Amino acid sequence: MKPTEPAPVLHIYTRVSTTAQEEQGTSLSSQEKLGRERAKALGFDARLWNEGGKSSNHEEIAGRPVLQALVNEIANGSAKHVFVYDQSRLSRNDNVASAIRYQCKKNGVTLYTKDGKYDFTNASDTFLKQVLDAMAEFDNAGRAERTRLGKLQRVKQHQWHGGPPPFGYRLESKKLVVEKAEAAKVKEIYQRYASGESVYVIKKYLDKSGVLPRRGGAWTGGSILKILENTHYVGYYIYRDGKSDEQLRVECIPIVSSSNWQAAQEKRKTVLLRKGQVNRTKHFYLLRDLMYCGFCNAPLGARTKASKNEHFYYCPTKERDWKKGIEPKIKHSKKDGCGFARSMNIDQADKLVWDVVIDIHAKSSLLKEEVKKQLIGGIVSPDTGYEATQKKNEKSIKLAEKELQRADEAITELEVEHRLGRTDAKLFPQIMKRLREQRITIQARIETLREGARNQAQERKWVDWVKAFGDEVKLKSKMTPEERKEYLRGMIERIDVKFLAETKEHRLEIRFIKPIVGDGIVLQKPKGYRLRKGATSKLVSLPMRGPPGKRATPVGNNSVTVE
To answer: Looking at the whole model, is its pTM more than 0.85?
Structure first.
């Protein structure tokens, strides 16, 4: 008796991309039911391949693992009959659709849908499938474009573009309004962080407070940092259109004061500079916090291992990428790599930078003028005038923000009245124009006040520094390593370092906070003078001495090049 051959298998692939499809009769269960009915009518067995909720517009098939597995079955000849609700279930992306068509045609697969079938050994069916795929991609692109334009239009009308609002806000009439309970926690997060508490300490406090993050569960360091970097809380956010790259600034109701915001950003900046190099080092490094790789912009690391005679600054990017299993964005090679192919001796670099900065300080007319002002009482005491001015600025900003809020409410109210037909059609455009112009004026005033507050904070730091280090006579006295570091922080914004393979030297660009490089005095008739600003950067070179990265004797002044 001849053995019975197994029945062919109909491979049923199901997928939905939106909850709306559940309501339109194309749910996963509906697709599966139609597939099993087709298998029964054909006398086939059925095997289900359920992708669940995935978009058909993924650029790569790897984004849909179940479909990838089914295509593998097709490629090895195990799947000859495939069912989908309609051809768009497979893909609306032309690259993916073409790859699937190729495998189906190569392996003689028949594709079944609710409306019929496509035999890929038949030229007419193959052509029809290509046309339908093109139509599906066109339809998907049009839908995506309408969605994009809709978001852009909402943003231009000062409405929320979509998705859940940030923590501290809720949506009302498609606009962000403050959620009081959450906003109170946002204020506390900023106040605690600015006052010196770590993210870990703030997380423990929030977990005990009973207020949950938006997605429930416990707070994480990442969710707290996200709040600390979110500009919504200081009164605005930037919406960027992915296609046109157009950027729109959208105003919203602020939750934290500009001073608390700025204080938090300053602390974040300091922390981020040393991300991946938390202060668990046992060694003191004078310049590590100021140095960056001139090729990849990564903060430089430092390493000291007495057992290996290592004592150097280096770029840690390649090392970190290797640990994470990441392919380097910039290949490190002798020919055309990141460039920081040789580490830089710490003692030599510290001495070079210190000597150059001290020399510039001694020759700076601007610094001498600042010291002179201080001696004759020309600088306002930061402990008195600053605090009073800062409070005044904060009050002015709050009043302007309330004024901006009232202007927004007036615009919204006028728009509602107009749509209800309660305004004069001729006067409406003029009134709306005046309101919008008024809003722009208020917004500009707020920006000016905020910029003034930022500048004042920077000026206070400068005044404090001048009081501590301004007189070069003081620098001749012995300073501790920590005092030297604090002094350099007041003078230097950052140091960009490159290794030049051709000349076997490190090139350092020292960027100063003030324009003091080569500044001077210009005499004016009949008497008097004015200050001439100098440059803000200085290039110096440090030739390599001996094996790279090993401890070496500091080089003298005649061994460095200063430009």
So the answer is: no
